[in-house]
Prior knowledge:
Elements: H1 5-21, H2 23-31, H3 33-41, H4 77-82
Amino acid sequence: MKWTKEEINSAQAKVEALATKDNEFRKLCLSDPHAAIKQATGQDVEPSYKLKFVENEGGYDTFVLPDFQGSGDELSDADLDTVAGGSK
């Protein structure tokens, strides 16, 4: 099943509400994210979809790094598609 943006937002709200008040659910989020989503929403998450919950540790902000695009000076195909210029 492919989730809509609204379903994802709703699932996130349900998970946050449960994890705030239920320590056992919070542990489930950390140990088995797919089962936690199923418990909170009643819907399965595609098994191949990778999920990870992290504990909120005071004093830290968590940032998710963007996808690695490779090393070197070459432009990716996507970058090349956005480049305009040259002369005739």
